[in-house]
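Page 42, continued from yesterday. The earlier attempt failed because a stray header line got pasted into the input along with the sequence. Redoing it now with the clean sequence only.
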Amino acid sequence: MPPPLFRFAGRALDGYRLLVAEDDVLTADALCATIRDAGGEVVGPTGSLADAVRLATCEPIDCAIVDMGLDGGQATPLVDLLLSEAVPIILATAAERDELPRAYWRLHLLRKPYSPATLVDCAMLALGDGGLIAPGQIRPASGLDGSA
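This time it went through. Structure tokens are written below.
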């Protein structure tokens, strides 16, 4: 197995617990492997909205990676819960930012498909700024859209 290609030296996610809410099994497996390779601990993964809400309320988490199409629908109840708890959120989606509810525009967007390095970069940004992009500072697509 080739070594991970992270831009951050060492195990960038050491000590962090990340909720993985993704209903595509292959994508969830890749997400979990990347998080573990970077030293993070995975909470989940789960492809169920109900289970993700349960994990978010019962488990300590530092950040959440949420597939907006979770469980064949919209993950808005989970995202709203995480926002109310001030948990940094990364929205993993193929959608454009302006296709998301306006209340989510300040959240970090991880455009599918994305590389492992982009995932770790995005997680470090979300953990570093509390998960919210400053007003007027929405990052350009090239920074968080999954492009390498």
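Notes: The two ends are 20 Å apart (CA to CA).
Reminder to self: strip header lines before submitting.
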